[in-house]
Amino acid sequence: MSEYRISVGGNSPGRDLRQLTQWLRQDTATRTGATITLQPAHPAEGQMGAALDVIALVTQSGFSTASLALTICAWRRARPSTPVVTIERNGVRVTVDSDDPADVTRIVRALESE
């Protein structure tokens, strides 16, 4: 089992995060391979609490990081604006700010390195 934490930047991060959550829940590979929930973000050092939520994906064995990266890139392409998405797994944080296929490879390599 593994956990991914996903956050969205931009002008409307709360709305975009909820829309990305719905997009992930509609994606068959993500929906069947992970439990998807919205959770409060961990507050930064010295802060009392977090204002924004994050998407938490708790995955089962066989879950594809590549499929997740492609799904997030597809969501970004479908948006009128393309908010920056941050994915974190095992302390590794990767920013998705492009839809370039080479970027998907970079995301997968970074998140699957242990």
How would you characterize this protein structure?
The chain has one domain (2-112): Alpha-Beta Plaits. The radius of gyration is 13 Å and the shape is globular. A 5-stranded antiparallel sheet has the order 2-3-1-4-5. Helix content is 40%, strand content 27%. The protein has 4 helices and 5 strands. α3 (65-78) packs across α4 (101-112). It has helices at 13-26, 28-33, 65-78, 101-112; strands spanning 2-8, 34-40, 53-59, 85-89, 92-96. The protein has 114 residues and is of the alpha+beta class. The mean pLDDT is 88. A hairpin with a 2-residue loop joins β4 (85-89) and β5.
Helix content: 40-55%
Q: Please report the total strand number as a whole number.
A: 5
Shape: globular
Backbone CA Rg: 13 Å
What oligomerization state is this entry in? single chain
* Structure annotation, total helices: 4
What is the second-level CATH architecture? 2-Layer Sandwich
What fold name stands as the CATH topology?
A: Alpha-Beta Plaits
What structural class do helix, strand and pairing data support?
Answer: alpha+beta
Order of helices and strands: EHHEEHEEH
Strand order of the largest sheet: 2-3-1-4-5
Task: Name the poorly predicted regions.
Answer: none
Beta-strand content estimate? 25-35%
- End-to-end span in angstroms? 14 Å
Q: Biggest sheet, open or closed, and with what strands and sense?
A: 5 strands, antiparallel
Question: Can you lay out the helices and strands and say which pair or pack?
Answer:
Elements: E1 2-8, H1 13-26, H2 28-33, E2 34-40, E3 53-59, H3 65-78, E4 85-89, E5 92-96, H4 101-112
Antiparallel strand pairs: 1-3, 1-4, 2-3, 4-5
